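2024-03-11 09:14:02 INFO queue: dequeued item Transporter, len=405
2024-03-11 09:14:02 INFO validating residues
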Amino acid sequence: MEQTTQQPRDGRALPPSVLALAAATFCVVTTEMLPVGLLTSLGEGLRTSDGTTGLTLTLPGVVAALSAPLLPVAVRRADRRTVLCALLVLLAAANLLSALAPAFGVLLVARALVGVCIGGVWAVAAGLAVRLVRQESAGRATAVIFSGIAVASVLGVPAGTLMGGVVGWRWAFAAMTLLALAVAALLAVLLPPLPAGEAVRLREVFGLVRTPAVRTGLLVVALLVTGHFAAYTYVRPALERVPGLGSGPVSGVLLVYGVAGIAGNFLGGAAAARDPRRSLLALSAVLSAAVLLSVPAGGSLPAAVALLVVWGLAYGGVSVSAQNWLMAAAPGRQEAGSALFAGVFNAAIALGALLGGRAADRFEVAGALWLGGALAALALGAVMAAGRDPRTARTKGTPPRLPAE
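2024-03-11 09:14:37 INFO prediction written
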């Protein structure tokens, strides 16, 4: 099937459809992470403990990990514009149900629906850049689409937290309902028709794992994301122990970290478009060093802040660089590769928080940081062991190149 492409008029500016996809990723990630800043008020309002309320974060990640590889199979030949619009409408419904939830069980049902939307939007949207722009602009377009994730952490979640503190947590979810509907309308207006190519089958999705370069990419994603969340989950208590940096200024430092993450997203995207292997090598090395050095640097305020900024820059480039790796490793199978990527990524988020908690319980906060840095170092070893750029590491058993779906 012929590839649907929107050509920017000046050859440099990206079409509005790419920005609409960035808005979609911003919306789903903000919704996913919203309970981070509302945990206390959610527990008080629904009379649940902090540990139980934490399921509102764990459940969407688990459901997203399962739905990401399954949803492209379920929708098969449906137009991808229609699929994305439907997912954003479902997200709006889930947020409305969250806002009106009379009991914690109802809220969990709503959060499970959020997980379906997260997995679906990631699986479909992540691989669409090659269909919307010229080949030479695909890397930049992919970076813009993934920038919605970083911006959600810097702006979306704090804004939702502020609203929850001022008018109550239910109104924060109500606001996300309106935002999801607005983004659904944007997608309907700005995206061109995106008919599916060959129907995605489950065996095709999991069959990609037989490709060495795909397998390496997924392993690196699992190690980096698990390591990051094992350490980052406990970065606030780690910073609060730094001399001269109390609980108040920590929020400002974390905001700087988020801004660095946005910059890292675009820098990593530019580097990965040229050479995804070299980009992941650099990111893995820098991330590992920054996290590991954060432990001994905890006694120095300038060193701790500088390392956190470097951490943000490095992790900000992980998503877009890994996506570029997988697109290069499985040409013509962007959606199947994106589905695997989203599934592994979301599973790693949940696993990282779990392992980080165990390490912190046994070895205090430093244990979570040591674990995170060690996993990033293992990711560096995995990329080095791959030995070749994914564009040249395809094997005889790799699915043949097909027209972009």
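2024-03-11 09:14:37 INFO annotate: Residues 230 and 353 are 5 Å apart (CA to CA).
2024-03-11 09:14:38 INFO item closed
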